[in-house]
Amino acid sequence: MTNMKIYFIIIFLIFSLGCNCEIGNTAAENDERYVTEAFRDDFEGDTVDTSVWQVATWSEHGGQTGIERCYVKDGYLNMVFINNSGTYLSSAIQTWDEFLYGRWEARIKPSAVPGVLNYFYTIDWNDTSDDSSGSDGTKQEIDIEFLTYTFSTDPSVHFAVHADGLTSYNTNPDIGLDFDPSSGFHVFGFEITPDHIEWFVDDTSLLKYYYSGHDVAITAPYQLKLNAWSREEWINGPPDSGVECLYQIDWIRFIPYEE
């Protein structure tokens, strides 16, 4: 090997080993249809910012939510589900503000305990009352659902679109993943536009849903909601009694879409 070749190899190795940088931006940051962030929470404080988030204290999905199971610690939003000898202690949180078209991203790690559902979704309650009944909303909904029982054998994530009285689209039944989502943090999200929805993980597209040909189109403002719960049907729960099932969120952001 010539001295010149050795020289270039050494220079390449020095550069490669010494470079500790993040390469590239998300698709939204490279797309002129998107503007600056309209919403972001890095959960850096000691408590949930209750001017931004409503922490659930009501009953839902056969369980009782509670503030003590939805808390900020070490830079993460922590959401807990516990099967307390047959009493389901769940958690839920939702934004006070409403949003519409744009790109949602969240760096999250669902629970590794089989038998819980960790949820990241939009919902048009059109209601900000303390019981979250949302009696007058369209119930237009976009879902990212983690069924934790799949992680150890056939990791997948479930996507869906709903509205009041309608289930317009479900994958059949899930989108397979080549990694266990509970083994580390990944950026999951979706883009909502006037004509379609696109889901992704780590900026890789997983599924597109076009309103044309379906019953549900996202037209109404919505809140963002996250929760952790369980039941026997579909979720294959509950987990063993007393086991803490931890769902962690590092950060969440929303970048509005403009045509």
How would you describe the overall organization of this protein?
- The structure is a single chain.
- This protein has 259 residues and is mainly beta.
- The protein has one domain (26-256): Jelly Rolls (Sandwich).
- It is 6% helix and 42% strand.
- The protein is built from one helix and 18 strands.
- It has an 18-stranded mixed sheet that branches.
- It is globular and about 50 Å long.
Please write out the topology:
Layout: H1 3-18, E1 39-41, E2 53-55, E3 59-60, E4 63-65, E5 70-73, E6 76-84, E7 87-95, E8 102-109, E9 117-123, E10 141-147, E11 156-163, E12 166-170, E13 175-176, E14 186-192, E15 196-201, E16 204-210, E17 223-229, E18 244-256
Parallel strand pairs: 4-7
Antiparallel strand pairs: 1-18, 2-7, 3-4, 5-6, 6-7, 6-18, 7-17, 8-14, 8-18, 9-10, 9-17, 10-11, 11-12, 11-13, 14-15, 15-16
Structural features:
single chain; mainly beta; Jelly Rolls; 18-stranded mixed β-sheet; about 260 residues
Task: Please provide a brief summary of the model.
With 259 residues, the chain is mostly beta strands.
Mean pLDDT: 87
Number of domains: 1
Rounded to an integer in angstroms, the radius of gyration calculated over CA atoms is 20 Å
Tally the helices: 1
CATH topology: Jelly Rolls
Provide the CATH architecture. Answer: Sandwich
Element-level helix/strand string:
HEEEEEEEEEEEEEEEEEE
The rough form would be described as globular
> What are the segments in which pLDDT stays under 50 over at least 5 consecutive residues?
1-25
Report how far apart the termini are: 56 Å
Number of strands: 18
Largest sheet: 18 strands, mixed
- Helix amount, in percent? under 10%
Percent of sequence in beta strands:
35-45%
Decide which structural class fits the backbone.
mainly beta
The CATH class turns out to be: Mainly Beta
